[in-house]
Amino acid sequence: MPNRREFLKEAAGAAGIAFTGCGLLNAQPQPGAQRRRQVVVGGRRVKTIDIHAHCAVPEAAALINRNVAGQDAPLEDRLKAMDAQGIDMEALSINAFWYAAGRDVVTQLIKIQNEKLAELCAAHPDRFVAFASVALQFPDLAAQQLEDAVKKLGLRGAAIGGHVNGDELSSPKFNPFWAKAEELGVLIFMHPQGVPELDKRLAGNGRLGNVIGNPLETTIFLSHLIFDGTLDRFPGLKICGAHGGGYLPSYADRSDHGCSAGAGCDPKPLKKKPTEYLRREIYADSLIFSPEALRHLVAVCGVSQIMIGTDFPFPWTTTPVDHVLGTPGLSDADKRAILGENAARLLRIPA
Fold first, then answer.
1. Which of 235, 249, 272, 282 could cross-link with 276 by S-S, CB 3.0 to 4.6 Å?
2. Residue at 310 is within a domain
3. CA torsion, points 166, 214, 204, 61, in degrees to nearest 10?
4. Domain that holds residue 336
5. Is 126 exposed, middle or buried (0-12, 13-18, 19+ CB in 10 A)?
C-alpha cells in the first residue's frame, strides 16, 4: 500500500495534470500546524472556493508541440499550499493556447484535456472542480464540447480567452457558443491573453504585457459584450472576468456616458446602462491588491458578483482569504458570499 505522498503523486500522474510550479508552492503549514486552515466568519465555517487557479495537461499540449514539461509540481504540494492559504476548493482552468489549431487536432486536444480534468475532479471532489476547454475558433464545435463537458463529464462551465485570433467574441459568429452557455446556465470564466497588437508599446521593463495588457484585454472583452449587444441577446449568460474584471469596474461610469458624449454608437439603445450589466451578468474575481480596491469593486458590482481568485500558482497573492477578511465595510454575510457562497452557487457545489 503506497503512503500518502506516493498515492497523491500517482493520482496526479494518472489524471495527467501538470500543476505549474512557482514560489507559492512553498506556502506550506509549519510543523505542528493544523493540516488545513479553517476559515470561520461570524461563527460559521466557510467553504472557501478559488475561482481562478491554473493547471495544464501535457499530453494535450504536445499535440500542437507545446511543451509544459519542467513545470510540474506534486499534487501533494498543491494541496498543502491550498491548506495553508485556507482554500478548500479550486476551480481549475487552462489558459487557451489552441485557437490556431485545425479542427481535427483541436477536437482531440480538447477531448484529452477535458477528460483529464474530469478524472482529477472525480478523484478529489472535495478539493477541485474544473472549467472545460473549448475550441472557440469553431463555435459550433465549442458549443458541443461545452455541452459534453457539463453533461457527461461534470465540468462546471468553460474557460475562454478574450479574443479568438483577433476576432471579438461579441461577433455574431460566436452566437452558437453563447446560446449553449445560456441554455446550460453555466459560468464562463474569461482569462486574458494580452493584447498582441500592443506588444511593441508594452515591451520593456515592468512586464507591461501582463500588468497592463491582461486587464486591458478583459476590459475590451467585457465592453464588447455589453456594447455589441451580446448580453442583450443572451441575458442569461454568466461571465466572470479575471483580475477584478480588468479596468472596467474602476471606470464604469465613463461607459454610461460614452454614447451621449459623441458619435460612434449604434443608434439602437442597449436594454440597460452599461454599469447595470456589472451587477447581473458580469462577475469578477477578487485578484486586486488593496482593501480599498476590493471595497470599490463591491460598491460598483455588488457583493453577489465577486469571488476569491488567486491566479494560483502564479505569484500574485498568498493571502486571498485575509484580503477579504481585512476589507473594512464588509459584513459577515458579505465576506461569506465572496469567500465561497457565490462560487458554490454558480458552480453548483454543495454546501
1. 272
2. yes
3. -70
4. 17-23+37-347
5. exposed
Q: Which residues contact residue 197 at a Cβ distance below 8 angstroms, ignoring those fewer than 6 apart?
A: none
Number of domains in the chain: 1
pTM comes to 0.90
Q: Is residue 1 part of a domain?
A: no
- CATH number of the domain to which 179 belongs: 3.20.20.140
Q: 272: which DSSP letter?
A: S
Task: Report yes or no on 291 lying in a domain.
Answer: yes
CB 155 within 8 A of CB 187: no
Q: Return d(Cα 176, Cα 230) in angstroms, integer.
A: 12
> Comparing C-alpha atoms, which of 149, 161, 147 is closest to residue 113?
149
**What span, in angstroms and rounded, lies between the C-alpha atoms of 242 and 224?**
16
Q: Can you tell me which residue has the cell 505569484?
A: 315
How many alpha carbons lie under 13 Å from residue 10 in its C-beta half-sphere? 7
Burial 82-93 (b: 16+ CB within 10 A, else e): bbbbbbbbbbbb
Q: How far apart, in Å, are the Cα atoms of 52 and each of 45, 104, 115, 146, 165?
A: 21, 29, 20, 19, 23
* Full pLDDT tens readout for the chain, 351 residues: 333 333 333 344 446 888 764 433 334 444 445 578 999 999 999 999 999 999 999 999 999 999 875 455 679 889 999 999 999 999 999 999 999 999 999 999 999 999 999 999 999 999 999 999 999 999 999 999 999 999 999 999 999 999 999 999 999 999 999 999 999 999 999 999 989 999 999 999 999 999 999 999 999 999 999 999 999 999 999 999 999 999 999 998 998 887 665 555 665 678 888 899 999 999 999 999 999 999 999 999 999 999 999 998 887 888 899 999 999 999 999 999 999 999 999 999 997
In angstroms, what CA-CA distances link 104 with 101, 118, 159? 8, 22, 20
CA distances in angstroms from 304 to 230, 278, 282, listed in the order given? 22, 11, 10
Residue pair 220/190 in contact by the 8 Å Cβ criterion: no
> Cell 472556493, residue?
49
